[in-house]
Amino acid sequence: MPTPSALPAEVARDLAEFTIEVPSWGYGNSGTRFKVFGTPGTPRDPFEKIADAAQTHAYTGSAPRVSLHYPWDKVEDFSGLRDYAAEQNMQIGMINSNTFQDDEYKFGSLTAGDRTVRRRAIDHHLECLDVMRATGSTELKIWLADGTNYAGQDSIRARQDRLAESLQEIYQGLDEGERIVLEYKFFEPAFYHTDVPDWGTSLLHCLALGEQAQVVLDTGHHAPGTNIEFIVAQLLRQNRLGAFDFNSRNYADDDLIVGAADPFQLFRILFEIVQQDAHRPAAGVNFMLDQCHNLESKIQAQIRSVLNVQETLAKALLVDREALADAQERNDVLEANGILMDAFWTDVRPALAAFREERGLPADPFTAFRASGYEEKVAAERVGGNQMGWGA
Ligand code: AOS
Ligand code: ZN
Ligand code: ZN
Question: Considering its fold, how many domains does the chain have in total?
């Protein structure tokens, strides 16, 4: 496929509608268990995080929402935070609950055997629903660190039953038009078993709860070699893919920039999405980033991430699906594969630059942001106070 100088109209339409949600924690300091490095200009409160997230949107035109983590992003007046976001041309996206940082949750939260601990964890989620409403959000995202480290430590079955009961109570708290999304992860911080380890477990709980419960797929949460696009196709088929946590990884849950480690995997995933029209807003899939930027500039990294997804989506949209269907019907294995590869290898960057300029955006958002002086300005302004970090 030759390099197109302009995008076909329907591809341009789909890209113009497509949005990505950015995580508030991606703008704070992060690191590994060995070290968290500070960076001049790192936000000191949720307002400054939103201001930084707004830069990602201003330069890409495709990232109008920011997810919050509660209580990391706790403020006195959440409606004030919502208003501040609106002034920055941003909306508050998903509210992420947090039951993994308090001593009380050492042996579990929604799955804990101790009734008082479980009660506290359920109440925390109900409080998240209040935060959601105060910020104008409609989505609660649940990722649980629950699990065990040793065989026999606790009953796997009993924990599932307690989880189902706890989720039921949270689900009862939803109003119409709201939803919860349940994330799965096969290991970490628990290393023997995790209570929501895979898409099957998440889906079973969601099916038991009802239509307002859907699965979150974090691309870093699978065993190496897992065919993630298969999971995407299957969840979409059941109308239960609520959201994505995009990132990339080489080894475990690395939370690196999406499309950095394996751009072809991102392409395969987005092609499954495109085939079921799930990239369009009407499908209701929330495409989020869940990343940490330990070494690199955080805003630049977020801009790069949005661009990586946008470029890869453009390639997926360029697949000649008619020709593909024809090759598939004839069982022409190599022609079918070649059609996909043609789209994957197409250089969409010039066409995307033109597309952005038509929308009044910089042709190269990454370079434009670097040259804007924003980072130098906030580094000079944000003195005193404590920089916010993953976990604070
Ligand atoms: C944890 O591994 C999950 O990916 C969560 O979605 C997320 O990273 C966490 O809630 C953010 O701190
Ligand atoms: Zn995640
Ligand atoms: Zn993760």
Answer: 1
Q: How far is the CA of 277 from the centre of ligand 2 (A)?
A: 23
Judged by its nearest atom, the ligand closest to the C-alpha of residue 254 is 3
Which residue segment(s) compose the domain that 86 sits in? 18-319+361-381
The reply to whether ipTM tops 0.90 is yes
| % helix, strand, coil for the chain, step of 5 | 45, 10, 40
Is residue 181 within 8 A of residue 139, CB to CB? The reply is yes
Q: Does residue 324 form part of some domain?
A: no
Indicate the pTM of the whole model.
0.97
Q: The tokens 């359920």 sit on which residue?
A: 122
Q: Is the predicted pLDDT of residue 165 greater than 80, yes or no?
A: yes
- For range 91-119, the mean pLDDT: 98
**At 217, is the secondary structure helix, strand, or coil?**
strand
The answer to the question of residue 356 being in a domain is: no
Identify residues whose C-beta is under 5 A from ligand 3, the ion: 253
CATH classification at residue 307: 3.20.20.150
Give the model confidence (pLDDT) of 208-253 as tens digits: 999 999 999 999 999 999 999 999 999 999 999 999 999 999 999 9
Q: How many angstroms does the Cα of residue 22 sit away from the middle of ligand 2?
A: 12
The ligand minimizing its distance to the Cα of 143 is 1
Measured in Å, residue 245 CA sits from the centre of ligand 3 at 8
Which residues line the pocket of ligand 1, CB cutoff 6 A? 25, 69, 96, 143, 183, 185, 218, 245, 253, 290
